């Protein structure tokens, strides 16, 4: 195990960095977009410490600047990344290290985490970083955690579907969840390991067996689907991506991913061809990346960013921030007969405060919802049966 306290540098606000447009939560999606590439580059160049940014900057005025100071002051959350040495785990851990709401960051994997933790500990932000490796150190990783993120498992390769990953990743998630049930039953758990449509039900069954299942605290991370939906819509309809709000429901694989284009904001005229093409591209986004990387990787960087966004939303909910709403794959009765489903959820101090409805669906979306049900239910059943067998 390695534990590091970072060195604090003097707080300063360089003259080259304008005192507006600064983000309050380091990786809030809309605020990050407002920041702009030039501002991000300036931040990296000057090495401006996050503490000085939080205290000196504001979003549109003194009141928001005060909110930034309050967010900084209450950054006392302990977060663990299980699979922290992997392709998603490493960039995800870097993004969490930069988040002022995180005070203690713990990385766990079968090997390699002490080195990753050492590397990250040199980043001059407030969070301390510890690396743990092997079964014997899982308990130390988990105890006292507020949030646990699981990207552990094998990545997709060309020709593989998420279901092809099941036989390996199902066992990994089950093993980790047994540890969580024993050592951190009150933590929020964000599952990234694919196939999410099955691994979240696996996690739920493990927690049920241990008598500690709280459906408000278990999430399948589908934020990458939302990111892709917003990005692809903005590009196709020629609108700023920072302005796009587009919910994605269902699951996290193929046809179970359903962007609700009828509810997009800002709404633009779309032909049936636009709707069909956008929906298919969003559904096939993971395959697009696997093919583009020619078999040498999957969507690690975008997934890491999506994981960091959802983690921040969970922490803001824990801190009591109001109106924190994200899409996530959770235990739900929104769709009759489908026990796990992704939709908008409102987050709070206990995890899920409210599961929001689907709203009015178009005829196209109603048809797509019906078409996904069998596949989604089969994936859920497969996960449940894996634990029960």
UniProtKB/TrEMBL annotation:
Keywords recorded for this protein, A-Z: NAD, Oxidoreductase, Tricarboxylic acid cycle
Protein family per UniProt: Belongs to the LDH/MDH superfamily. MDH type 1 family.
InterPro entries for this protein: Lactate/malate_DH_C, Lactate/malate_DH_N, Lactate_DH/Glyco_Ohase_4_C, Malate_DH_AS, Malate_DH_type1, NAD(P)-bd_dom_sf
Originating organism: Physcomitrium patens (Spreading-leaved earth moss)
GO cellular component, one term: cytoplasm
Positions of the Lactate/malate dehydrogenase C-terminal domain: 222-386
Descriptive protein name: Malate dehydrogenase
SUPFAM superfamilies with a match to the protein in the record: LDH C-terminal domain-like, NAD(P)-binding Rossmann-fold domains
This enzyme's EC code(s): 1.1.1.37
Residue intervals of the Lactate/malate dehydrogenase N-terminal domain: 79-220
């Amino acid at each position: 195990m390695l534990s590091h306290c970072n060195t604090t540098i003097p707080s300063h606000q360089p003259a080259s960095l304008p005192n507006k447009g600064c983000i309050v939560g380091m990786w809030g999606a809309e605020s990050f977009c407002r920041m702009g590439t030039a501002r991000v580059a300036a931040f990296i160049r000057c090495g401006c410490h996050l503490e000085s940014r939080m205290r000196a900057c504001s979003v549109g005025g003194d009141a928001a600047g005060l909110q930034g100071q309050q967010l900084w002051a209450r950054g006392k959350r302990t977060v663990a990344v299980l699979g922290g040495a992997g392709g998603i785990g490493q960039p995800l851990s870097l993004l969490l290290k930069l988040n002022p709401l995180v005070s203690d960051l713990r990385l766990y994997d079968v090997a390699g985490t002490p080195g990753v933790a050492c590397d990250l500990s040199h980043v001059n932000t407030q969070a301390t970083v510890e690396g743990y490796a092997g079964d014997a150190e899982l308990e130390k990783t988990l105890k006292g955690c507020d949030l646990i993120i699981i990207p552990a498992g094998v990545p997709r390769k060309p020709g593989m579907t998420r279901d092809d990953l099941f036989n390996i990743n199902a066992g990994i998630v089950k093993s980790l969840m047994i540890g969580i049930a024993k050592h951190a039953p009150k933590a929020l758990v964000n599952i990234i390991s694919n196939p999410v449509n099955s691994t979240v039900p696996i996690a739920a069954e493990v927690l049920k067996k241990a008598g500690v299942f709280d459906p408000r605290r278990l999430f399948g991370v589908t934020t990458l689907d939302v990111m892709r939906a917003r990005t692809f819509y903005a590009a196709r309809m020629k609108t700023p991506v920072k302005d796009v709000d587009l919910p994605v429901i269902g699951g996290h694989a193929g046809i179970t991913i359903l962007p609700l284009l009828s509810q997009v904001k800002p709404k633009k005229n779309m032909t049936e061809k636009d709707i069909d093409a956008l929906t298919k591209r969003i559904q096939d986004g993971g395959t697009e990346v696997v093919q583009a990387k020619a078999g040498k990787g999957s969507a690690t960087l975008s997934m890491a960013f999506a994981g960091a966004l959802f983690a921040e939303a969970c922490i803001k909910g824990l801190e009591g921030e109001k109106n924190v709403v994200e899409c996530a794959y959770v235990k739900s009765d929104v769709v009759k007969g489908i026990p796990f489903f992704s939709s908008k959820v409102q987050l709070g101090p206990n995890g899920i405060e409210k599961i929001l409805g689907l709203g009015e669906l178009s005829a196209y979306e109603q048809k797509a919802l019906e078409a996904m049900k069998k596949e989604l239910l089969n994936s859920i059943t497969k996960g449940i049966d894996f634990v029960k067998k």
